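#onboarding

Welcome to the new folks! Below is a worked example of what a typical request in this channel looks like: someone posts a single protein sequence, and someone else replies with the predicted structure as tokens. Don't worry about understanding the tokens yet, we'll cover that in week two.

Example request:
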Amino acid sequence: MAPRIGPSTRNAALALGFLGVCVFSAASQRSWQGAVRASAQGLAMPPQRVLVGAQVAAQRFLDRVAELWGATAEVERLREENRALKEALARLSADAHDAGELLRSFQGFEEFRRALPAEPIGLVSARVVGADASPWRSSVVVDRGSTDGVRVGTPAAWGSSVVGIVVAVRRSAATVRLLDDPLAGLKVRVARTGDVGVLRGAGARDGLLQLKWLHLRPVQAGDLVVTSGLDPAIPPGLVAGRVVRAPQTKEHLFYDVRVRPLVDLQRVSDVLLVIYRAPDVEELLKEETK
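Example response:
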């Protein structure tokens, strides 16, 4: 027969059971609330992250705009400085060009003065104001004429180099036929040998001159060709060029020699007109022609 459970035992068991239910309910309630809270927080996190990311991106964009604005102002300032520097450089370049022109004129005058012979010589500085456009001629017009003492036959020089001869004169202008003109005919001498020939343009695009009528001795590449002094209007010893082609055999009884001027004749911008007359030579030559 099963044992009988007393009232006191039953009451104690009921009390323990009720207490367990309460404890379980409390624990279950806390777990449920935590789960709900965690779920709510989980649902709220993505929008919050999106808002935070958008705020960070907006702040970065504003910072970038501020940087670009500052950079634009800096670029404009640099442009102004660059413009001012360019203007200053242009002024300095113009001043340097003027100073260079003056220095070249002075150097040319000094170089020519050192090459002067003992006879009295007058020098007239002239600027090229025009040029012959014909491809078969080579001449320039200078801004000095008969009122300055210039005459037909007056040589034009740059430094110690002769560049041409005056062939026409007006009161305030003159035409200078340059050495590379085929019609030029300057009496010259090979400095090393003393042989005399005539120098004129070869009619070629290379700018070389033709030295004609040399028949005594062959010349050598590198020989200097100078004015002969046989023309009473041209002082001796002015450099006309340097031999660059010197065949050792004659062609039709003469050597076919090519000479390169020491001055670029196509870029001459100013010259020295040499007013020179050898003492009594003209009078003697005139008497010989009578």
